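Field: COMPLEX_INPUT
Field: COMPONENT_COUNT = three
Field: RESIDUE_TOTAL = 920
Field: MODE = joint
Values follow.
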Amino acid sequence: MEDQEILRVENLSVHFSSYEGIVRAVNRISFSLKRGEILGIVGESGCGKSTVALSLLRLVATPPGRIVSGHVLFQGKDLLILREQELEAYRGDRISMIFQDPLTSLNPVLTIGLQVSEVFEYHKRLQQQKIRERVTEILKRVGIPSPEDRMRDYPHQFSGGMRQRIMIAIAMACEPDLLIADEPTTALDVTIQAQVLTLMRRLCTQLGTAVVLITHDLGVVARMCNHVAVMYAGEIVEHAGIHTLFTTPLHPYTQGLLRCIPRGRAQGRLYFINGKPPRLIEEIEGCNFAERCPVVGPRCSQGSPEMLEVSEDHRVRCMRYRS
Amino acid sequence: MEEKKPERSLSHLQIAWRNFRRNWTALVGGIIVLLILFVAVLSPALAPQDPLKMTPKRLQPPSTAHLLGTDQFGRDQLSRLICGTKVSMAVSFGAVGMAVLCGILLGLISGYYGGKMDNVIMRCLDVIFAFPLFLLALVIVAVLGPSLKNLILTIGFIYAATFARIVRGSVLSLREKEFVESARSMGARDGSIIFRFIFPNILSPVIVQATFNLSTAIMIEAALSFLGLGTQPPDPAWGMMLNESRSFMEISPWMAIFPGTAVMLAVLGFNLLGDGLRDALDPRLIVK
Amino acid sequence: MRLLSLLPILLGASILIFSIVHMVPGDVVDIMIGDQSHGDTTAATKLREDLHLDKPIYQQYLLWLWNVLHGDLGMSFTTRHPVLNEILKRLPVNIELTIIALIFAVGLGIPIGIYSAVEHLTWKDSIIRVFSVMAYAIPNFWLATLIVLVGSLYIKSLPVLSYVPFSENPLLNIKFMIIPGVVLSCTLLPIVVRMTRSSVLENLRLDYVRTARAKGLNGRIILYRHVLKNSFIPVINVIGLQMGILIGGLVLTEEVFVLPGIGRLMLEAIQKRDFMIITGTMLVITVAFVLITLLVDIVHAYLDPRIRY
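Field: COMPLEX_OUTPUT
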């Protein structure tokens, strides 16, 4: 039961059409997650990590966006081929999502009590009185003081950290099996970040919820995750257990990221990775990272690197490790 | 930054033109407007007959001699309609032109310098906006006496208030932007800042608003003429022609159709044009 | 508290009205008496005294204001009745027209706007948009004229050009007021449709809709419970802004459909140079307009909790 696989993503690809061509935002992403685990997906802005998160629940804006291939297997069922109605039954109940900006993600004209109780109304079909109790309970659990009174307040009357807690309350209300968190702390102050993350970790451990945590902050990853996938230009370039990744990173990009973290006393200049990520409109011959890679070699511009399993909890996509 | 600095304004315009061209309703509007302006400018010459000349052929239906028929004095409707275009355009462009000049001036001063002057100006504007604007125009024109000049002055006065408000709003938001701060820190004087930085950036909303105001000005002029408060007979004006047609509706219904269509087309044309300009100049929609 | 800020505006407005009338070129009294004096100046002098025209202008203004605040809007020159009475007699017509117009504009406009937004990018939406733009461009006095035309030529039984007070016969009254009311609503309807449509479309793109979808709610619930309330806010705003145009349209509609309302009262007064009535009606209409704007603000605050708290 403990080691049961809860989510398996296979070869997920998402394209966006724009004035200038097709943007390959997500390219052949694969990963899996077991019950109760926390997976971190790290990468810089624009690498496609948010798109991956949205695709899991098919929340990508479909006029410009399109999921072109792949499978998202949740407890064995492929979410990508379900009808919209069937998928709606999963959303908010078995799989929940929280977003980056809690102010715009909450409806400004509805009370938070209503926004939380909605999930109970819709998924659990409880009595009004019972709903009130459950709402009070979950709000208390996420740390909202005097929930009975504050239920009638509106989102703008809360601070940023409180609002994110409300989002968490909404997401965890039905005790989902999987929580997708898209940069949940990026918009918050550093001190509040720590509180929210601790809350998330505690709740998810208590309820046995698996988490896919999207972030650009390696510090958050270090604190929260069991394993990490590093994304670059729409692909996963390295995927390893948390300890393994921080001690023996194999991909030059991951190594670069870790070098960027300032340690101890400041000595000399801060490290940074030269260059910019590629525009995802053109198909690039060879490795996406080649033009910025400090250890680039002649093989790196021919063919695309495949994902190689180096050990049980470590996979990497780099030409240098090809067998 | 999406604001244009003077050196980049040419490419900004080219982008705007490209957006405009893609929008077919805007093009339709533009064509209508050009046609109307063409007629208005050439109007006395374009008319097949003298619009003031009365003939014994009264209330005739459309025929080859009189394409749109004749009115109760035997005057050719088509010619009157064409000359009415000139009146309509004169009033709307005159009023909006005056309003833009005064409004920009007032808005720039009020927005940029702020303080007591801004307060006073805003209070005055508030008083003007407390009135239903059409009624205000009606009463002022009625009191001053109906004439072309008074129409232009009244409508211009009222629209000046709307432009002042819009310009002031834009100036207020631009004033705090960083490029103004940096210019000031380099020692640029107020006048120079206003002229080179703020002014080009208020042009877009002003142009769009001016186009919409042209369409409403045409409507107001027609409405006031309809009530007898526009140009006086025998000079033709669309609204007045429509009003005259009411007494003869049963005998010659077509008299009521043509002037109204003219007003509708003119208003429609400027409106579509305004929409098109707004979408074309919208910084969010500009994709490089 | 809001009311307090209105006072200086109203005061300013009254000054403006007062000064407009005093802008009349030529001597007021001479205009009013016209040719009737036949060279006899005693009547003119007396009239001048009655109207306090011999006093300095700020005194005239204060006297006038004083009277107004006591409900005395002066006497009409032409009918010799108190202006206030004349106005009150005709006010119900305007109120009724406005209510009918608002009901149609909002009652039809909002559903059409929502439908148009939901059918975004289909031919149904395009047709609605085309019609809206055309309806906006049609001068309402032309539409009114055409309807009267149709009524007199083809459908003889069309209920227009007649009026029965509500107190006499409610059904008949409504029968005659419906068409003018609908015509009046055409000044507002296309704007409501357009604003509702763009507001709904705008809201559908916002983040909170994505959250709602992530909760598993279906499209209909999202639309009706989440989006609509947010969408109405700019619509209410725009209705408030357009009320001025609606009031302007009242005058024109009354004129064409020959209804005994304030608009025609004012038009007649303009023709006969009856300045008492002109100032009186202007004052009443402006006060009403300011109050309506206040009402719109209140509704706006009710809808948007961010303003309330």
